Amino acid sequence: MSRVRESKPPAAPKTPRPGLKNMGAMYAWPMGLWFTAFFIVPLLIIILYSFLKKGLYGGVVGEFSLNAYKQMFNPNYGLVLLRTVRISLISTLFTILLALPCGYAMARSKFQTVLLFLVIIPFWTNSLIRIFAWMSILGNDGFINSLLMQLGLTKDYLKLLYNQQAVILVSVYMYLPYAILPIFTAIDRFDFSLLEAARDLGATKPASMMKVLLPNVKSGVVTAVIFTFIPIFGAYTVPLLVGGKDSYMIGNIIVDQVNKTRNWPLAAAFSMIITVLSTVGVLWMMASSKKESALKTPGKAEEKR
Amino acid sequence: MKGSTVSINSVSKSFGTFHALDNVGFTINKGEFFSLLGPSGCGKTTLLRIIAGFEYPDEGTVLFDDKNVIPLPPNKRQSNTVFQNYALFPHLSVYENVAFPLRLRKLGKTEIDEKVQEYLHLVQLDAHAYKKPNQLSGGQRQRVAIARALINEPKVLLLDEPLSALDAKLRSNLLIELDSIHDKIGITFIYVTHDQSEALSVSDRIAVMNQGKVLQVGTPFEIYESPATEFVAQFIGETNSFDARVDECVSFLEEDGEVKEYMCTLDVPSLSSSIKVTDYEKTETGQKVCVTVRPEKIRITLEPPVTSRKDINVFTGVVEEPIYSGFQSKFYVRLDNGVLVKVFKQHSNYLDDGPEISWKDRVYISWSPNDGYIVEDITK
């Protein structure tokens, strides 16, 4: 029998090698340079332009002016702004409502890789071509109308294209993959035994989804909302191609101010509105989801054990 | 008693070609602390999930107090579960986790508060009510899970290996706590575990399972002292078992003309010798049996054992592996005929211990016929 006494504690582990800590900053500078040149500088130019006087044939005159911002206080522009918010909100809502069951089904499926692949496939086609595809589906002699007419269900063409509904439909279609991916990732990380626990404790199936699944995948939903709302808020191709008079959005104002009216400071000012509103929106959403997960621990937080 | 009787009637369940449960049936009494014990994959968790309502059996019924619960979804059964991985809601505080079932029932605010405080107090977590689950230690999380499962005042509490993720010290403390909670609340506890010492220490009765079948249902004492099969003997505690053939069984103890105990002589081919074992029942000559002897019931000595009895079983051998573990020593003794036998020696006090036995010592091992046990179903 060996009853050897271990008298010396093992040597303390050596401190990690110094000098390996801040390599990240070094590797990050090419990206930093890229963003400075092609994102921050153009943004600064836009800010600058919005405070300048408009040139006679487009462009700007180097003279400080608040004219652009004054011109924005036009009730017509206010209407467009409200409409843009409305279309973006409705589209985002539908996108999320569709993405949630999709993400859930994918996370629980055996064929995750295949389904993920299918979600990504539309990215292989240029977005313009996909919008044109929708036009040929919704158009007067498009797929839906000719099908309905041939079946004898309708006598006249249904006006499916060139209205707000078409803009919302196509926007939902365009941004659905961007919403599915973060929601899928969040649900995939979710511990499904929590749903069993909820059921065991008396929750019905819908209640367990609402009270346990949804709060725990909130970060994914917030990301999906951001990925969907911001691009739709600034969209101009979709309303331009499938929208009508009732779906003129801020993005379209900007294009027209640059190309037709040639009021660059006003276009810059509207760009500022989009940037500021979406930044504020994102910050607000991030802050509110952070606040909820923050801990409200009154008193001391020491462990007993 | 506030609990309910749980009757499991010929329950079978297969996953594809794998038979998780094969015609399982027994009854758990009101207020009992009942354990389902077996190695992993034996079907104990599947049975628990069927009782909870997460799985449906292919055949059979589960009755709570004579009422078939199989058609009911989990939220309509009067049972609650303590999950192996705790399954606490990470987005809710300890308080809200425990209040969750009450909020679903839409109880009043003061009523919820009173009950939550009561159950947090029961599991000694009053001071941690506003923490999130990820700020708690494993033991604390498990207590939250217990409080949450008890707050609905279920008639049956199902525990799925609730202590398996904790370290040994904490495990034994929590086990004692669980036992005292059971005494206080008085409902039926069904406890799934693969740890035989856990099951032995707290259960009123145990069902030992293997490969989807129930091998034995009994009190811890019955299961340890009179195992129904060789598997049970091997799984519960440690044992030495030998295949043997009955030479003869003769009356050993008689009372009022009725035989109370038989003395059997068994031929053990592996020991190339015969051993004597007493039994309450007569076994037919020529029947093949398995005989088991618990290591702690075997004496190990350097000198031939001194005893007045002539029928004790004595073998000689060499200590191949002595294992000192504080309160006892384990010896693996290689008998002269080549068989390895486990012997445990308790260290009670210095003088009784006798001379120290060490590696390569020649020793005598001996046990009384009362300490062997015949398991009869070897022919199966």
Describe the structure.
The complex is a heterodimer of chains A (305) and B (380). With 305 residues, chain A is mainly alpha-helical. Chain A is 67% helix and 3% strand. Chain A has a single domain (57-286), classed as MetI-like (MetI-like fold). A two-stranded antiparallel sheet of chain A has the order 1-2. The relative contact order of chain A is 0.12. Chain B has a 6-stranded mixed sheet, sandwiched between helices. A 5-stranded antiparallel sheet of chain B has the order 13-12-11-14-20. In chain B, helix 2 (94-104) packs parallel to helix 4 (138-150). Classes of the chains: A mainly alpha (305), B alpha+beta (380). Chains A and B meet through helix 8 and helix 9 of A and strand 6, helix 2 and helix 4 of B.
Topology:
The complex is a heterodimer of chains A (305) and B (380).
Chain A: H1 23-50, E1 52-54, E2 60-64, H2 67-72, H3 75-108, H4 112-120, H5 127-138, H6 143-150, H7 164-189, H8 193-200, H9 205-216, H10 218-233, H11 237-242, H12 250-259, H13 264-293
Antiparallel strand pairs in A: 1-2
Helix pairs in contact in A: 1-13, 3-7, 3-10, 7-10, 8-9, 10-13, 12-13
Chain B: E1 6-15, E2 18-28, E3 33-37, H1 44-52, E4 59-64, E5 67-68, E6 79-82, H2 94-104, H3 109-122, H4 138-150, E7 156-160, H5 168-185, E8 188-193, H6 196-202, E9 205-210, E10 213-218, H7 220-225, H8 230-235, E11 240-255, E12 258-268, E13 273-279, E14 288-293, E15 299-301, E16 313-324, E17 328-335, E18 340-346, H9 350-353, E19 362-367, E20 372-375
Parallel strand pairs in B: 3-8, 3-9, 6-7, 7-8
Antiparallel strand pairs in B: 1-2, 1-4, 4-5, 9-10, 11-12, 11-14, 12-13, 14-20, 15-19, 16-17, 16-19, 17-18
